[in-house]
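ok so for the tutorial part 2 we go from a plain amino acid sequence to predicted C-alpha cells. step 1 is just haveing the sequence, like this:
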Amino acid sequence: MSEYAPWAFNTFSHEEEPILGDYLSDYMNRADVRAAFNIPDDVQTWSECTRKIDYHELDECSLWIYPILRHQTRIMKYSGDTDGAVPTYGTKQWIKGLNWAVEEDWRPWFTEGQVSGYVQKYDGLDFVTVKGVGHMAPQWARQPVQEMIMAWVHNESF
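step 2 — the prediction. this is what the C-alpha cells look like for a chain of 158 residues:
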C-alpha cells in the first residue's frame, strides 16, 4: 500500500498494511534483475514511491508544454472521475486556466450503450473522464478506455 498510496502513510499500522503490489518491488530488487539492468550494488533498492527524495511542487508543473504542443500535435488528457491522487476537479481547473475556447461542450461517451464518462473538446485539447475508476483507469475500465483511446487515435467519435 505504501508504494501505491504514500499519502495514506498513517492510515494503516505496519502490521495491517494491505499488500497490493510488492511483487514488482520484489522482482526489480532481485540480484539477477539488478545485474541485467547494470545497477551497481551500492545503489539503493527500487521502490515505486519514496520519501527519500525531497520533491518540490511548482505551481506551473507541466503547464508550459501545452501551448507549445497546441496545434502541432493532438492532445488528449483523460482522468478517472474517482481518482483521489489526481482528481478530475483539479485537472478541470488547470485546463480552465489555459483559457482555450471550448469547441465541443461537455457530453457523455458510451461503451455498449452505457455511459463510460464525459468528454469536452477545447481548441487544442480533448479532455475525457472515465466513469467510476481512479488513477488506474486502463486497468479498471479496460474495454471503455481501450475503445476511447483507439477512437481518439483514429479521429473517430466516441
